[in-house]
Amino acid sequence: MQQKTYTGQPVIRLNNGVDIPALGFGVWQMEDLQECENAVIKAIEVGYRMIDTASIYLNETAVGNAVKNSGVDRDELFITSKLWVQDHGYEKAKSAFQRTLDRLQLDYLDMYLIHWPFGDFLGAWKALEELYHEGKIKAIGVCNFTIEKMEELKAHSTVLPVINQIELHPIFQQKELQVYNRENNIVTQPWSPLGNGNAGLLDDNEKLKEIASKYNKTVAQVILRWHLQEGFCVIPKSVTPSRIEENFNVFDFELTEDEMNVVRSLDTGKRLFFDPKDPAWEEKMLNSVADI
Question: Strand locations in the chain, DSSP E?
Answer without folding.
Answer: 11-13, 19-21, 25-26, 50-52, 78-83, 111-114, 140-143, 163-166, 187-190
